[in-house]
Amino acid sequence: MDKSKRPFRKSKRPFGKSKRPFGKSKRAFRRRLPLIQAGDQIDYRNMGLISRFISERGKILSRRVTRLTLKQQRLMTLAIKQARILSSLPFINNENQFEKRESTDRTTGRRTRKR
Fold first, then answer.
1. Of 53, 60, 69, 105, whose CB neighbour count within 10 A is largest?
2. Which of 72, 82, 74, 80 is nearest to 37 (CA)?
3. Which domains does the chain have, with CATH numbers?
4. How many CB atoms lie within 10 A of CB 63?
5. What pLDDT was estimated at residue 30?
6. What is the structure's pLDDT at 26?
7. Best CA proximity match to 74, nearest among 86, 62, 84
8. Which residues, 6+ apart, have CB-to-CB distance to 76 below 8 Å?
9. Given this model, what pLDDT does residue 64 score?
10. Which residues in the chain land under pLDDT 50?
11. pLDDT at 98
């Protein structure tokens, strides 16, 4: 049987020629589970849920980090801001605020200029 008439046979490609010469290699990835489940209420009183979307410094984490939808992020932002206004959450979580800083030694006396 002639090579050109073979059914269901792929022709061999020349070495070095691929289908996607500049494309990325396909990697398997595992989709992360969303942090908000179907039954979770996005509310300013739900501190357990809200605390997952705030950084250690007290800032609201971005959608890229939290994997929230746009609607969920908007609701979460409103809930966090309400909780801050009602004093449930601090505006800034600065733990080093009240720590005493090390004092630096200061020289006493008159400074002399080099001439």
1. 53
2. 72
3. 47-86 (4.10.640.10)
4. 15
5. 73
6. 72
7. 62
8. 42, 50, 53, 60, 66, 68
9. 92
10. none
11. 56
Q: Report pLDDT for 59.
A: 93
CB 60 within 8 A of CB 53: yes
- 43 contact partners, CB below 8 Å, separation of at least 6: 49, 79
Give the length of the chain: 115
15-33 residues labelled b (16+ CB within 10 A) or e (exposed): eeeeeeeeeeeeeeeeeee
Structure token pair of residue 16? 């070095």
* pLDDT (0 to 100) of residue 93: 78
18: its two tokens: 């691929």
- Here the tokens at position 95 are 């733990």
The token pair that represents 104 in the structure block: 């630096």
Tell me the two tokens of residue 53: 């979307």
